[in-house]
Amino acid sequence: MSRLIVISNRVQAPSADSNGAQGGLAVALTAALREADGIWFGWSGETGETGDLAFTTYDGVTSATIDLPEQDVDEYYNGYANRTLWPLFHYRLGLTEFERDFQGGYERVNRTFGEKIGPHLRPDDLIWVHDYHLIPLGWVLRQQGLKNRLGFFLHIPWPPTPLLTALPEHRRLVEALFAYDVVGFQTREWLETFHDYVRNQMGGSVGEDDTVTVGGRTITAIACPIGIDAEAFIASANSLNAAATHARMMTSSIGRSMIVGVDRLDYSKGLEERFNGYQRYLETRPDAHTNVYLLQIAPPSRAAVQSYRDIRATLDALSGRINGAFADIDWVPLRYVNQGFPREILAGIYRAARVGLVTPLRDGMNLVAKEYVAAQDPDDPGVLILSRFAGAAEQMEQALLVNPYSADDLADAIEQALVMSREERIARWRPMFGNVRREDVIWWRKRFTAMLAQP
After folding, report:
1. I need a surface site. Which of 27, 282, 340, 421 has the fewest CB within 10 A?
2. 3-state secondary structure 51-116
3. Residue 363 catalytic?
4. Residue 123 CB-density burial (10 A; 0-12 exposed, 13-18 middle, 19+ buried)
5. Is the pTM of this model over 0.90?
C-alpha cells in the first residue's frame, strides 16, 4: 500500500498538547495518514535557522516540521502569500502588493521545502500538496527527478483571468500547476475560471473527462468541495457543553432573536459590509429594535499585515457607532467579540441563533455555513443567510442567498429570516443538512485521493 504524504504551509497533526481539538481538515487528513502510514510535512510556525526536519509521532501519525528564518517568514508568508496571492485570489486587486522580494522569498521557501522533504520520499508515495502557499512545490519536486503521483488542492478561490494577469510572472505560477497529476478546486466556478486562463493565456485545451492539456502535458482538474467533519460536529451540537451554552445564550437573549456571525477577522469575510447591512435593518425597522441582536465573533488574524490591522480598527469604530446610535438602557444591538471558542461552545451558540449570517465578499468554501446547518435542532432550525459569492452557495442553494455588498439586500434577508415560518425553515434546512452529512470532509478526502491513486 502506498504511503500518503501531505504537505502544507502549517502542520495540524495531533499532538499531546492539542487535547484532541482539531479542525475537520486535520481530522480527515490524520485519519488517512494513520491508515497509510503517512507523514505530514510543513512549517513549524517558528522562526529560526532552517535545519533538519523535526519528526514527531503521536497517536499513529507522523509529522515533520522545519523552522523558517525571519526573512523567509516576512517575504514568503506575510509577503507573497498574504499580501499578494491572498488579496488577488479574493478579487481585491486594490489591496494586492507586488514586491519582487516577496516573490523571491516565496520561491525560495518552496525550494527549501523541496530540498528538505525530497530525501524522505519513497518511489510509490502519493503526495498531496495543499493551498496557495505551495503552488510551485510540485515543480520543485519534479526538478529533483520525482516521478510520483502528485496532487494539489486549492482551498481559496481561483481568480478570473483579467485579475490573475495583473500578477507579475502569472504564467510561471500557473505552469507550475502542470507539474501535478491532479489539481482540485472548491467549486465548478473556480475550476471554470482556471479553464478560461488555460485556454486564453496558454493556448491549452479542456477535455470532457476532466483533463486539461497544455503543450505535451495533461493533468486532471476537478471541482471537489471540502466539507466539515459532520458526524463529529453533530455530536458536538448534542453534547452537554453545547447544551449548557445554548441555555446560557437563551437566558442572555431574554426572548430576543439572535443573529450570529463567526468569522476570522479578514477583509474577505465582508464584516464591514455585514455591519452596514445590519445597521440598515435597524434604520428601516425601528419596531424590531429590541427584539433582535447580532452576535459577531471575530478572532483576530495576521496582525503583522497592515490591512488586517486596518479592518480591525474599522470594525471597532463601526460597532461602537452602531451601538451608540441604537442601544437602549436594557438592549445592545451588536455584541462584537474578538476571540475564538471551542467547537462545542460554538455548536451551542449556533443552535441558539435564529439566523446564521455568513456573508463573505469572496470565499473558497466557508465551512461556518456548514457548521451552522449541522448544529441546528431538526424540529426548529434557524435560517442560513449566505453570500452568493461563497463557494458553499453551490451546495446550499436553499439558504437565503444575498449580495453582501448591498446593505438593502442584507436588511431584507434578515427580515425574511426572522419572520420565516417553522415549516419553511425546516423545508430549507433538510436538504442542506443532507448535503452537509453526505459530502463531508471524509468524502472530500476519499474522492481526491482516489483520483490521485489512479495511474
Report:
1. 421
2. CCCEEEEECCEEEEEEEECHHHHHHHHHHHHHHHHHHHHCCCHHHCCCCHHHHHHHHHHHHHHHHH
3. yes
4. exposed
5. yes
User: How confident is residue 12, by pLDDT bands cut at 50, 70 and 90?
Assistant: confident
Q: Which of 155, 170, 195, 289 is catalytic?
A: 155
What are the phi and psi torsion angles at 228 (to 5°)?
A: -100, 170
Q: Which domain holds residue 445?
A: 4-227+441-453
Number of domains in the chain: 2
| Judgement on whether residues 387 and 260 belong to the same structural domain of the protein | yes
| pLDDT for 231 beyond 50 | yes
pLDDT confidence of residue 118: 95
Instruction: Mark whether 270 and 127 lie in a shared domain.
Output: no
Number of Cβ within 10 Å of residue 454's Cβ equals 9
Residue 27 has pLDDT above 80, yes or no: no
- CA dist 401 and 388 (Å) reads 5
Q: CATH code at 90? A: 3.40.50.2000
Report the SS3 class of residue 27: helix
**φ and ψ of 69, to 5 deg:** -60, 155
* 29 compared with 192, residue with greater pLDDT: 192
Considering the chain, what percentage of its residues have pLDDT values greater than 90? 87
pLDDT at res. 374 = 97
Is 408 marked active-site? Answer: no
Catalytic residue, candidates 72, 263, 266, 363: 363
User: Exposed (0-12), middle (13-18) or buried (19+): which is 99, by Cβ within 10 Å?
Assistant: middle
Distance (Å, whole) CA 150 – CA 142: 9
Q: Which helix (H) or strand (E) holds 121?
A: none
